[in-house]
Amino acid sequence: MNEDLLLEIKNLTVSIQKKNESIPIVKGIDMDLPNGQIVGLVGESGCGKSMTAKSINGILPSVAKVTGGSILWHDSKDKVTDLVTLKEKDLRKRCGQDIAMIFQEPMTSLNPMMRIGDQIREVLRIHKLEKSPSQSREQIIKMLESVGIENPSLRYNSWPHELSGGMRQRVMIAMAMISSPKLLIADEATTALDVTTQAQILKLMKSMCTKSSMSALVITHNMGVVSAICDYVYVMYLGTVMEQAKVSELFSNPLHPYTRGLLSSIPKLSGNPEYLKTIPGNIPVVNKKFPGCEFCIRCSEDVQKCFFENPPLKQVGEDHFVRCHTVSL
Amino acid sequence: MDNSVLLSASHLKKKYRIDRKNSIFAVNDVSLDIFTGETLALVGESGCGKSTLSKILMQIIKPDEGTVSFEGKEISSLSERALRPYISRMQMVFQDPASSLDPRMKIRDIIAEPLKAFKIYGTQAEMNERILELTDMVELKEDCLNRYPHEFSGGQKQRIGIARAIAASPKLLVCDESVSALDVCVQAQILNLLKRLKNQLGLTCLFISHDLSVVSFIADRVCVMKNGAICELAPAEKIYSAPEHEYTKYLLASVYCP
Ligand SMILES: Nc1ncnc2c1ncn2[C@@H]1O[C@H](COP(=O)(O)OP(=O)(O)OP(=O)(O)O)[C@@H](O)[C@H]1O
Ligand SMILES: Nc1ncnc2c1ncn2[C@@H]1O[C@H](COP(=O)(O)OP(=O)(O)OP(=O)(O)O)[C@@H](O)[C@H]1O
Ligand SMILES: [Mg+2]
Ligand SMILES: [Mg+2]
């Protein structure tokens, strides 16, 4: 899709290890993160979005393991490192330098014993970006301001427990952005924020991508967020990519029944139907190997083939791929 | 929607201290009417006082000033005992389905809680019948009744919370960010359920949310709050097509739509 790649995920499989079983929850996905672009990853709760993200910087929970595929970091045109095979120490170092992640649960990731300004300064120190104390302080205050914290110079000295949930989330975002990472992974980073703050933070992310050529992987189930800042988007269902396309293409021409279901589930600002069109049922429990399309039991299309043959990911247009038997070229 | 006022708030105020010197008005001189059968949405930025206002309306916290009337009777000055019959007619669905259900209780007992608390059914058989009816209304299967909350998904937990809230046949249902924590698919299912219940049971609903698209789907009227005060209250079509207050315009302009 783009020669100028920062990260390339190839056939990645992540499995949960149980007693003598290994249950795949991310099932061989391919994903490209180009330099300076924002890639969205969407899908229902439990489809494996966070697991995909966590395998990039090697912070999978102990029960989960990468069991196949590679995650290639493009250091330069002709130097590529596979993060999956890196030693833990080397991976830590690289992630610390180049990858910042904003988590789904911000409350648990701030140190309750440290003033927030000092916590952000710690990030600068680790990345050896510290300037003189007063310059650092100024830089931190500016960062706090740009994530929408009022009275940033007063807030510099606040303890985490003195901030509301939304403010703590913004501190996390400030910590992630201040080191100017090459890759920002934002896992539901703005979901808990109200619309005005969310808009402000999305703008900030976007401008960091254009100005300092940061790449970002934005995980969300908010399609509004995707349409606002992403360049490209992957739609995931039960650990598999079902559709991928440029954002404008995906919204104007969604082809997979799952994508169309997702889009019709979202209420709009005006012209809503009396009842929303929903995807029936829930995500099924991960079961034994099923030969057909994983979505077929909830699908609105009724095609025999789907029950016994898993469709391949087909290219249907420029940079537009779909995994569905009902979509023809 | 008929024109009788179910709940009426008059000049409510509630102040909170933030430190020794400063305090803020979480609710600052709010007056509003909620009509029988309507869904009134409360929107506004985080911290603007939505939850505080709803708790005052439900008599969970006392205002510093102002009064609340329910079906024409002032209830804000009633004793706890005199208030009981009114409380059973106002129920709440919470934001976090997980933490609002007692993990040690079976689903049957969770749904039965208000039925017991307000002594609504005489015999066990009548109560069981009602529980089955409620289970059916929120589209859960009968066999869920003997299971525990942790065995259910977020969306299912929220259905259980809704069943509990409507068990005592309340007049007013307050939903405080009840769908915010759910993913789009489950959110759509729960929104449809709430709308269907409202139509079926003639429920009046106070719907608190910071998601203006969700509000557009469900609300008849919208009340926009800022810094503890109402800045605009109008029918939903009017708010979305011709907002008057600058702040309403600003909120709407901040929404991203696909
Ligand atoms: N610690 C764990 N032990 C066992 N299974 C887990 C664990 N963490 C996650 N899973 C399972 O792995 C699957 C993928 O989870 P993941 O957290 O990646 O989902 P997600 O797409 O990020 O969902 P959400 O939108 O809810 O955050 C889920 O089915 C989940 O139940
Ligand atoms: N018990 C309390 N003690 C002190 N201050 C409080 C208390 N409860 C609420 N506040 C303050 O009152 C204001 C309004 O809070 P409230 O919870 O009503 O806001 P909200 O509109 O529901 O916000 P959100 O969308 O974040 O839930 C906030 O500034 C909050 O910090
Ligand atoms: Mg997740
Ligand atoms: Mg609230």
Summary tags:
heterodimer, A: 329 residues, alpha/beta, Rossmann fold, eight-stranded mixed β-sheet, 26% strand, B: 258 residues, four-stranded antiparallel β-sheet, 36% helix, globular, binds adenosine-5'-triphosphate, binds magnesium ion
Structure in words:
The complex is a heterodimer of chains A (329) and B (258). In chain A, helix 3 (116-126) packs across helix 4, helix 3 (116-126) runs parallel beside helix 6 and helix 4 (133-146) crosses helix 6. Chain A contains ten helices and twelve strands. Chain A has helices at residues 49-56, 88-98, 116-126, 133-146, 152-155, 165-177, 195-211, 223-229, 247-252, 257-264; strands spanning 5-18, 21-34, 38-42, 64-76, 79-82, 99-102, 183-187, 215-219, 232-237, 240-246, 314-317, 320-322. In chain A, the strands form two sheets. In chain A, strands 6-7-8-3-9-10-12-11 form an eight-stranded mixed beta sheet, with helices on both faces. The model of chain A has no long low-confidence stretch (mean pLDDT 89). Chain B has two domains: 5-89 and 171-255, 3-Layer(aba) Sandwich (Rossmann fold); 101-169, no CATH class. Chain B is 36% helix and 26% strand. Chain B has nine helices and ten strands. Chain B has helices spanning 50-57, 80-87, 107-117, 124-137, 154-167, 184-201, 212-218, 236-241, 246-253; strands spanning 5-17, 23-35, 39-43, 65-70, 73-74, 90-93, 172-176, 204-208, 221-226, 229-235. In chain B, helix 3 packs parallel to helix 5 (154-167) and helix 4 (124-137) packs across helix 5. The radius of gyration of chain B is 19 Å and the shape is globular. The interface between A and B is large, with 39 and 37 residues. One magnesium ion binds at residues 49-50, 104, 187 of chain A.
